[in-house]
Amino acid sequence: MAIAAAITVPLTTPRRRSLSSTSANPIRFSSPLTARPKNLKFTAGRGTQCPNFRICAASSMRIKAPEKGSPDSFLDRKESGILHFVKYHGLGNDFILVDNRDTTEPKVSPDQAVKLCDRNFGIGADGVIFAMPGVNGTDYTMRIFNSDGSEPEMCGNGIRCLAKFIAELENSRGKRSFTIHTGAGLIVPEIQEDGKVRVDMGEPILKASDVPTKLPPNKDQSVVKARLDLDGSAWNVTCISMGNPHCVTFGTSQNQDLQVDELNLADIGPKFEHHVMFPARTNTEFVQVFSPTHLKMRVWERGAGATLACGTGACAVVVAAVLEGRAARRCTVDLPGGPLDIEWNEKDNHIYMTGPAEVVFYGSVPL
């Protein structure tokens, strides 16, 4: 697969660059702009190759505004062998969104998703999300492939991105909600007037065998502030499922107050993910408490590694903090990519997550 790029990016994010190339099979990117900045020019070196992927040398880089109305016309394109996509991010947790409404089979295979998500030889993303036909009366179905090709049950930041993507596909404006079938059950995101997305994430699953974890329950049928031995340290962990498994820790028996910025996540994260106590592997959240309504977390995601944000993880963190008596039921959770508002509602036992989802660019790639 040969790739070159012509990118147009928002004026508000100068870090994003745009490339143009004379390659016959380019990835083309475009993104909404209201003003045209001065052109930036760049000369690329020789192309780099990897299996089924080639990054072709580009002759220049420029930033420009696409033609008026181009997003709608872009999403309407139907070309054989070409995948049109929109890249979104939720607090830096980024995804390739695919309009898959005309079929119940993903248009991208897990192996192709791995290549597309590669940040050096592909588009670059934490996962590929498919907007698919709804089932059992729902508006849509969400499926997602992680950057390693695995398929999680759900993704909190991803569902917010999917809601904004669906609104664009439907050309709808203002406040709007959707019912979405996921591997974690029914999820209902609602786009707010300010553009943020509030998501009813449903009820947390606390029963140890359903998380799942092999750690023995120590509070009713749940695992709360239990001991997990890892690398010679005894970590205190609480295990929760938001439709996908989470292991939340606020520290070890020797260090009850984590300084999350000091953690070597690349070293410790995989050891939690693949620990024998988690038969389906696990997402892991490391949490620092600033106050009963203000938490800070870093996350190692199952199948994606360290990411800038994890919506289901932020929900699990607030549940764990409440169960351990550390926080109130509504908190601001700081993630590396920004804050999320999380509420564990006492009346209906549902968790509500509110946060942003933004377009990065529009693109197309030959498959």
Automatic annotation (TrEMBL):
Keyword DNA-binding: no
Protein location: Plastid, Chloroplast
Entries under InterPro entries matching the protein: DAP_epimerase_AS, DAP_epimerase_DapF
Keywords linked to the UniProt accession: Amino-acid biosynthesis, Isomerase, Lysine biosynthesis
Superkingdom as given in the UniProt entry: Eukaryota
Gene3D superfamilies: Diaminopimelate Epimerase, Chain A, domain 1 (3.10.310.10)
GO molecular function ontology, one term from the record: diaminopimelate epimerase activity
Coiled-coil region: none
Pathway annotation from the record: Amino-acid biosynthesis; L-lysine biosynthesis via DAP pathway; DL-2,6-diaminopimelate from LL-2,6-diaminopimelate: step 1/1
EC supergroup of this enzyme: isomerase
GO BP field: lysine biosynthetic process via diaminopimelate
UniProt entry tagged with the keyword Amino-acid biosynthesis: yes
Enzyme Commission numbers on file: 5.1.1.7
Pfam families, sorted: DAP_epimerase (PF01678)
Catalytic activity: (2S,6S)-2,6-diaminopimelate = meso-2,6-diaminopimelate
GO cellular component: chloroplast; cytosol
Family note: Belongs to the diaminopimelate epimerase family.
HAMAP family: DAP_epimerase
Name under which the protein is recorded: diaminopimelate epimerase
The gene coding this protein: LOC107805769
